[in-house]
Specification:
Elements lengths: L17 H8 L13 E2 L2 E2 L7 E3 L4 E3 L11 H10 L4
Antiparallel strand pairs: 1-2, 3-4
The structure holds zinc ion.
Zinc ion binds next to loops.
Length: 86
């Protein structure tokens, strides 16, 4: 697994957040699905895997239940710049 990190200076809005800090500093880090506790017909709809970068949505997306993160645009811009994502 690629654990390469960078030492980009964190924006004041990102530094207090472990998730945001990790995302900026480590290309391979992605948050877990935020919908993992949602139930449908009494059953969990998702086992809560890590999300992946969705170019289409410009956010992170869950591969199981299609949940999408709601990071603000300014953070997403910093994230993409940190990892040279076009
Ligand atoms: Zn999910």
């Amino acid at each position: 697994m690629n654990t390469q990190t960078n030492d980009v200076e964190l924006h004041p809005n990102d530094a207090p957040s472990i998730v945001r800090s990790n995302m900026i500093r480590c290309r391979t880090y992605t948050p877990y699905c935020g919908d993992a506790r949602t139930k449908k017909d009494g059953n969990l709809v998702c086992s809560g895997p890590r999300t992946y970068w969705s170019k289409v949505h410009n956010q992170m997306k869950c591969p199981e239940c299609a949940w999408i993160t709601e990071f603000p645009d300014d953070f997403i811009a910093r994230y993409k710049e940190a990892h040279n994502i076009k």
